Every structure is written in C-alpha cells, then in structure tokens.
Amino acid sequence: MPEYVVVRDSRLEGQMPGVFTAWWNDLNIISTSETTPLQRVFEQINDLKEEHGKMHTLFILCHGYAGGSNNLMMSGDFGGQGLQLGKEDVLHSNVSAWAEIEDAVSNIVVYACAAANTEAGNEFTTEDGEYLMGALAIHTNANVYAADRIQWYTADDFDFGQWEGRLLKFKPSGEPPTSVSGVPVGFNELT
User: Fold this and answer.
1) Which structural domain, as residue segments, surrounds residue 83?
2) Which residue pairs from 164-168 have beta carbons closer than 8 angstroms and sit at least 24 positions apart in sequence?
C-alpha cells in the first residue's frame, strides 16, 4: 500500500534515485511537465486513495517562483508567487482546485523555493506565500509544510539536505502558521 506520493515536475533538474515512475519503498511517483494538466495529477492521487485509503504524505518537488518581488520592485530571496507545477502551476488564483484531493493525504511537504515567503508589504497580494500555502492546507484538508527561503538541493541524487530559512507548518484549520524544526517524514528518508 502506498503511504507516500511524490508529484515531481520535470523542470526541476535531476533524476529520481533509481526510479523513473514506479512503485518504490511505499512511494508512488507522479511526473508532471509544462503540458500536464493538474486535473490528471488529482485523478491519479484520488485513484490511489480509492484503492489504498488516505495516504500519509504527498511530496511536491518543483520550482517555486522566487528571486524577486514585482510588488516591491526588488530582487532578492523573495518568493510566494506560486509553484511551477504542471500546466497551470499552483497560484493564488487556482489553489482552490486542490480541493479535488481533499482528504486524500494527511501531510503535504513542499520542496520548492520560497513557497511560504511573505515579505513585509506583500501581505494579501499575489506574492503572499503564507496565504498560498495556508490555502493549500485548507483546500486539501492536510497539514502543509513549506519554507520561506530559496532552497538548495543536489540534482544528481535529489538530496534536499537541511531546510533553508524557516520551515512553516500550515494547518487545515486556517490558523496562522507555526515554525517547526522538521517534517513528519522527509523525502530523503524514503530514498
């Protein structure tokens, strides 16, 4: 029974260790690209839930839109604009679509640059990563874990190492995020 699902966007450089898209260590890997509709991803996750029940963790491996703030008109270690995942991306304008997988997983761990970043002055804008990750938690009814800074990883073995910046936990209740020291299970623990 798969306890873990990985949604990996092919624009994130590197090769999954030892696998392409197969069952492995209770892990199911779903690949996306700029042409993959997220609806197809939701269908695959729901098929897994229907067959095996609610899963422990969904890992999202993709680029986060980071490196500058259009709102603040500055370059820097900023983010919060969304995730480069599938054809539609994950944006403030479409995060509600993730309700398609409500109750399919208990946790979502986002390995993407500055996904939870909200710079002062960007609150309640399309550069509010805390709002975006909080909305993802609410719509999926899952705990969401994401960092507020640009992340680094080793592409040859998908080693994400330590979290850069603050790692935040967003609860589906919508309460403010809390800083945490780790995730329930890390991707590197499974590979």
Assistant:
1) 4-190
2) 165/77, 165/114, 165/117, 166/116, 168/116, 168/130, 168/133
For the entire predicted model, the pTM comes to 0.93
The 3-state secondary structure of the chain reads: CCCEEEEEECCCCCCCCCCCCCCECCEEEEEECCCCCHHHHHHHHHHHHHHHCCEEEEEEECEECCCEECCCCEECCCCCCCEECCCCCECCCCHHHHHHHCCCEEEEEEECCCCCCCCCCCCCCCCCHHHHHHHHHHHHCCEEEEECCCCCCECCCCECCCCCCCEEEECCCCCCCEEECCCCCCHHHHC
pLDDT at 189: 79
Return the pLDDT at 191.
64
- Ordered mean pLDDT values, 10 residues apiece, the chain (191 residues): 86 69 63 97 96 94 87 80 97 98 98 95 94 98 96 80 94 98 88 64
Q: What is the pLDDT of residue 19?
A: 45
Q: Which residue has the tokens 């002062």?
A: 120
Tokens 């975006």 — which residue?
A: 132
Total number of domains in the chain = 1
